[in-house]
Design a protein that fits this description.
single chain, about 60% helix
């Protein structure tokens, strides 16, 4: 991704990891079907006459590709599952790793609302001091940035 995963791009990171996992699973499945079709052909005319013909370069590459995609699927699939769990629970990775809110998470709004907030609520709010009651807003909303108005000179 080339960047830090934060509130504004966490959903894109999750989509990236989920789609990478789906692609790896699809590639592994197609590879298994290919290998099965080549090595265990039902028609006797398709079977190989010697063991040397059975393992040519295409088959070796197919096995290497299968091992590679299974490693990718395990790593990225686990990452996608972990971040999906965090999205459902309404937690961040930082909160999870530091062990905050072990008993109850004050930001947990239920599965559906947590997922909605994860997908559509990733924008921090910026308020101009003096135009809004920033003390009240910062108590209600956890991601409030306050910009002080520039001093006007007379």
């Amino acid at each position: 991704m080339g960047t830090c995963v934060g509130k504004r791009n966490h959903r894109f990171f999750l989509m990236f990891s989920v789609f990478t996992s789906i692609h790896a699973a699809y590639t592994a499945a197609v590879d298994v079907v290919y290998l099965k079709g080549q090595l265990y052909a039902e028609d006797e005319s398709e079977q190989y006459e010697s063991a040397d013909e059975a393992w040519n370069a295409a088959h070796v590459m197919a096995v290497i590709l299968l091992v590679y995609t299974c490693i990718i699927l395990c790593c990225v699939g686990g990452l996608a599952g972990y971040h999906s769990k965090l999205a459902i629970q309404g937690r961040t990775t930082n909160e999870e790793l530091r062990g905050k809110y072990i008993n109850s998470n004050p930001y947990d709004m239920g599965c559906r609302r947590n997922c909605w907030a994860f997908c559509y609520g990733g924008v921090s709010r910026v308020y101009v001091k003096g135009r809004y009651d920033t003390e009240t807003l910062s108590a209600v909303e956890p991601n409030v940035f306050v910009i002080k108005r520039p001093q006007q000179t007379a």
